[in-house]
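Hey team,

Sharing the Protein TONSOKU run so nobody has to redo it. Sequence (1098 residues) first:
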Amino acid sequence: MATLSSAKKSYEYAKAEGTRLQEAQWANVIGNMLKKSGKYAEALKWLSIDYDLSIKYLSQNHCLPACQSLGELYLCLEVFQHALLFQKKHLQLAEDANDLVEQQRANTQLGRTYHEMFLRSEDDHFSVQNARKYFKAAMKLAHIIKESPPTNNCSFLEEYIDAHNNIGMLEFDLDNLEEARKILTKGLEICDERGVVEDDDGRSRLHHNLGNVYMKLRMWDSAREHIDKDILICQRTEHRQGEAKGYINLGELHYRVQNYQEALRCYQKALDLTNLMEGEDALLKQIRQNIGTVKKAAEVMNELQKEEQNLKKLTEDKEDARGRPRERHCLLQIIASLDCLIEKSRTTIAWAKLCEFASMKKIISSELHDKQKLIDSFLVIGESYENLREFDKALDWYTRSWKEYQFIGDFEGQALAKVNIGNVLDHTNNWQGALDAFKESYKLAVRANLPSIQLTALENMHYSYMIRFDKAEEARRVKLLVEELKQQRNKEFHTENVPEDLCSSSNSRSKCATLVSENIVHRNAASRPIFLSSADKHNQQCQVVSFKIDKDVIHYPMKATEKLSIESMKVELACFYYLGLPVERRSDGILPIIKDIKLGGRVIESLETLEATVSEHMGQVLFDACIGGWNQKRLIKLYTDCCNTLCETPNMKVLMKLYDQEMTDADVAVSGCGLQDFSITPLLNALDAYKDFAMLDLSHNLLGNSTMEKLQKVLPGYTYCGLRLDIHCNLFGPTALLQICECPVLVARLEVLNISENPLTDACASYLLDVLEKCKTLHSLSMERCCITSRTVLKVADALNAGSPLDQLCIGYNDIDENALACLLVKLGSLKRFSSLNLNGLELNKRVVDSLCGLASTLPLFELMLRETGIGMDGASLVTNSLFIRTEEIFKLDLSYCGLTSNYALKISTNSCMICGIYELNLSGNPIKEEGSKALSSMLLNSKCCLKVLVLEKCELGVAGFLQIIQAVSGSLTNSYVEELNLADNVKSLHVADQVGLDDDCKTTCQGEFSFIQKVSTAIRKATNLRFLDLSKNGFSKQSAEVFYSAWSRSRPSDSSLYGSRGWHMEEETIHLFLEGIKCCVKPCCKTNSFSCSAYRQ
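Structure output:
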C-alpha cells in the first residue's frame, strides 16, 4: 500500500501543477495497481480518469494505455461489450502508431474476450471465429517481434508466451487436449530457454492451464505438479485472484479422485481469498456452488459404500441360492443394486467404479438370460471407458451394443449407441465420422419418436458444424431445429405436467446419450476467471420469450436493464427474425412489419402487459407476432453481409435504426449506436456498396478522425447531388475538417454539416476557413460546443462574402467575445441567402444586441435561437421588433431562459404581425407566470394565430395558468394550428387545485364542479389538433396520467388516417402523449438540427 500511497501523492502533485500527461499516467498506474489487487470498482474510477484526460487534453497516442487497461479491466468484470469497445480502440490506435507490440497485446485481449464470450454461449459462431482470428494474429505478431526485437528495449517475451497460453486454452475448450498440451508445454519451454523468472505471471498461467489439461487427460500426478506450481507463484507475487483460482483447480482435482475432504479444504481457502477481493460476486457464487456439489458427492459416496456392502451380501445370498428356485430372485435383486451403484458412480464421477459395476451387471444379465439388460450393460461399459479416456475400448463396446440393439430391433438403443459412438469419434479427431453418427442417431430417434435423443443428436450436430467444420449456415439451420424441438417439448410438459420420454427399459440407458456433465465448475484459462455457467448467466441478465413470426419461432431476450416500448420491441423482433433466416432468404433485405403482438387472439398493447403475461405463465408462453406487411431495406442486407465477411456480430441498434420505416432509402441515420472507429467498418463497407444516400447521420457515437478517413474512401462512388452530414457529439478533432477539404466529393456536394460537440478547438480555424471557401454548396453549418473561441469565429467571418451560399449558422456555447460576434453579425448581413442563426449560450451585451438588430432589419431571419443569452426584456423587445421589419413571418423563435417576464408575452400577444407571424415559440425558463399565460391564451384564441409549436416548460404558470393555456388550445373553434405543446414543470403542488378555489371566470369556463384532473382531461380530449403534449414534472400521479392517455386516445381513433397510431411515455415524472411521426425524449442538440423542420418530428 506504500507504493499505492506514493502514486496517489504523485497524481495529486501532477494535478495541482496542471501537467495533464503526468496526471493521466499516474491515474493509469494507480488503476493498474488496484486492478491487480482485485479492487476493480476503484480501479475503474482511476482508469476512467486516465481515459478522460487522454481524450480531452492529449494526443490519440496517449489514449492507448488507457484503452488497454480499461479493456483488460472490463474483461475481468465480464462486461464484454465494453471490453470489446476499448480493446478495438486499443488495436486501432496501435495500428495507427505502427506499434507492433501494442498491436500484439490488443489482439491478445480481443482473443481472450471473444474466447470468454464463446464459453458463455451455446451457438456464438462469430465469437469462436474471432477468438481464433485474434489469437492467430497475436501469435504471428509475436513471432515477427521475436525475429526483429524493437530497439526501445521493449521485450516480446511476455506477449510471445501469452500467445501460446491463449491458443492452448482455445484448443482446450474445443476439446483438442493433446494439441493444447503441446502448445502450453512449448510456452513453458520458451520460459526456460529465455530465462524467465520463476515467479513470472506468464509461467503461473501456463502451469494453471496445464493443470487443467492434465486433469482432463486424467494424468493426476502431472496435473497436481502444475497446479501446485501455479499456487506457489501466486502466493509469492500476492496475486489473490490467481491463488484463489489455483485452489479451485486443486479442489477439482481432489473431487475428481473422490478425495472430498481435501477438496473442501481447498475450496474453503479459495473462498477466504475471494472474500478479500472486490467485484468477485460471480466467483464467490461459483465456489459456494462447488462446495455444495462436493458435500452432495460425499453423501452419495457414503450411500455408495453402504450399497456396496448390500451388494456383497446379495452376492453371498446368490451363491447360497444357486440351483434353487430363489436364485432368479437373488439375481434380480443384484441387478437392482447394481443399477443403484451405477447411478451413484455417475454422480460421483467414479468411472472406474462405473466400469466395475457395469461389468458385473453384464455377467448377472447373462445369468438371467435378459438380452435387453445385457446390451444396456454394454452401453454403460462403453460410457465408463469413454470417461476413462480409453477410447478404443469405448468404441468397441458402443459398437457392440449398437449391433445387438440392431439385431433385436430396438431403435431407441440404436439411437443412443450411435450418439455415443459419435462422441468417441469426435474425441479421436474423426470429425466426419462423428457427424455421420450424430445424423444417423437423429434419424433413428425421429423414426422412434424420441424427442430427448433427437435433441441430443441435434445439439451434437450443431457443435460439429459450428466448431469442427466452421459451417455457420448449417449450424444455424440445425439450431433452429433445436429451438423448435425445445419449444414443442416445453409445451407438452406444461400441458401434461409429466416428464416425457422416460426410458422404458433402463434409467441408465438415457444417461449415456451425452457426455456426463461434471458438476464442479473449473477455471477457464487465458485470463484466469471462473464464471457462472452460460445458463445461469443468461437467466441473471435476461428472460427469453418466444414469438411466432410467420412460420418461424424467435426466442427474444428481454433484458431487464433495457427500457423499451412495445413498438421498439416489434422492430427488434423483426431484426431478430431477419438475422435468423438462412442466407438465401435474406438476399432481398426484406424484413417483416409486425403489426400486433397477440396471445390467444388478444392484442398485447404494452410492454408491461407482456411482461406480466410472461411472469404469469412462468416464461413458458408463445406469442403470435402478426405481420402487417414487409419492409425492404437493401442497406440492412448489405450491412449484415459485411458483418459476416468481417466475422463481426451485427449491431442491433444499427439494425433498428436502418429498419426505420419513416426514413427514406436515401437517408441513413445511425445516431446513438455506440459506434467507434473500428466497429463502424461494416457499415461503411455497406455504404460503399449502397452508393445512393443523401443524408448520413452518425451523431452521438464515439467516432474520430479515422472514420472520416474511411468515409473519404466510401464517397467517390456517391451519386446524389447533395449530401447532409451530421456527426455531432463524437470525438472528431480539427483534422476531420482537413479531411473534408481533401475529399473532392465532399467539397463538391456537401450541403449541410453538423459538427457540434466535437473537440475541434481553435486548431480547426484554418481548416474551417478552407471548408467555407471550397464547399460551394454548403448552406448550413453547426459547430455548437466545439471549444472554439473568438479566433475561429473571426476566421469564419473572413471566409464569408456576398456570394457565400450559407443560410444557417450555429455557433452557440463557445467562448466568443463581443468584438468577434459583432464582426460576424456584420459579415452575415452581407449574405444574400442567410436566414437562420443560433447563438444559444453566448453572452449578448448591448453592442451585440444592436448588431443583431441591425442584422434582423437587414435580412429576413426565419429562425433565431437565443437560449440562455441573458438578453433580457429590453434586448428581446428590440430584437423581436427588428425581426418583423423585413418579414411578416418567422418560423422559429427561441428566447428560453433569457430572463423575460409576462410583459414580453403581453407584447407579442397584442402585436398583430407577431400573432400571425410566429410558427414556433420557446419561452421555457422565463417566469411569465399566470399573467403571461393569460396573454398567451388570448393569442392562441385569436383566429389569426399561426403558432404550431409552443414550449412553456418551467414558466411558473401555476394551476390557473396551466389550465388557461391547455384550454385555449382546446377551446378555439377557429385556430387549429397548435400541434405541439410543452407545459412541463409548471405546477408545483397539485393539492392546491382541490383545496383552493379558482377565480370566477375559470369556474364558469370549466364548470367548477370538475376537479383539476378532470378539467385537464377534458381539455386534452377537445384539443384534437395536438400531436404532441408534454405534461412532465407537474406532480401528476400514474393514475392521472392514465386518465390523460384515455382522453387522448378516445378523441384520436387509431383507425383514422388523420391520426395514425397513438403513443404515450410515462416513466417517473415523465408524461408524453404523442401521435405517429412524433418522437419524445429527443436530446436538445437533436431538436435543433438541420435535418428536421420540427422540434420533435422524426
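The domain at 900-1098 is CATH 3.80.10.10 (Leucine-rich repeat, LRR (right-handed beta-alpha superhelix)).

Ping me if you want the raw files.
A.
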